[in-house]
Structures are given as C-alpha cells and as structure tokens.
Amino acid sequence: MRTAARTAAPVALAALVLLAAAPLPALADGDPANGEKLFRQCKACHTVEAGKNRVGPTLHGLFGRKAGTVETYANYSEGLKASGIAWDAKTLDPYLANPKAVIADSRMAFAGVAKPEDRADLIAYLEAATK
Q: What residue range is the signal peptide (predicted)?
C-alpha cells in the first residue's frame, strides 16, 4: 500500500503541473455574433461609434485605452480615473463580471455578466467592433 501511495503522489503532481501549464482559451476567442446580441443591453449607455457618448462614454478605441480617458466624456468617477486600468480582455473580464467589485465607486449602473462564456463573447465582439 505504501508503494502505491508513493507512486500515486508523483503522478498526481505531474498531472497538476500539466493542467496548470495547459493554455486556457483566450477571452477574445468568444463568439462575436453572440457578443453583439449581448451588447444590446449595453446600448442604453454606450456606443461603439467614435466620438458618440451617451450616459457612458463611447467604447470606440477601447482596447489599449486607459480607463477614464475619453476626452469628450466628463462624467467618470474618481475611482475609475485613478484605477490605472488599461482595457484589454484580461481587465474587461472581471469588470464585466462585477463592475463594483473592481471599481467600488464606478458610476456604471450594471450588475454584471454572470456567465464566463457570455463575457468572452461580449469581449470578442467589443474587440472587433471598437477598432
């Protein structure tokens, strides 16, 4: 029995190392067509058109942009402006899941997108539509 335990431990450790090293699917590998449908809930406050703000800022040019820096939009919270976040798939995912958990004083009145696959789809759409 001791021999089996000694053999199983290294095998289990090797399996964990392989799992940890396995590449995860990129968030932007989501389905942009479904993401466009999901974006309908965002349209009340945001557009993907350059220079067109609504209650929230335009999302045009979102990827690579620092949070709180659209020059034609003045209603950012201090927390968002001070966050230092540069938007990309990795920073958008937790923000879209729960904006208030990422930036407590965010003015974005949105509870979040619960399903990771929906967030991946939305991010894929935004990556394509906001260029």
A: 1-28
Buried b vs exposed e over 91-113: b needs ≥16 C-beta within 10 Å?
ebbebbbebeebbeebebebeeb
How far apart are alpha carbons 56 and 123 in whole angstroms? 17
Domain extent, residue 36, equals 25-129
Which positions ≥6 away from 1 have C-beta within 8 Å? none
Q: Is residue 20 part of a domain?
A: no
- How far is the C-alpha of 52 from the C-alpha of 47, rounded, in Å? 7
Domain count, the chain: 1
Q: Is residue 5 part of a domain?
A: no
Mean local confidence (pLDDT), 14-22: 35
Both tokens assigned to 121 = 């789809």
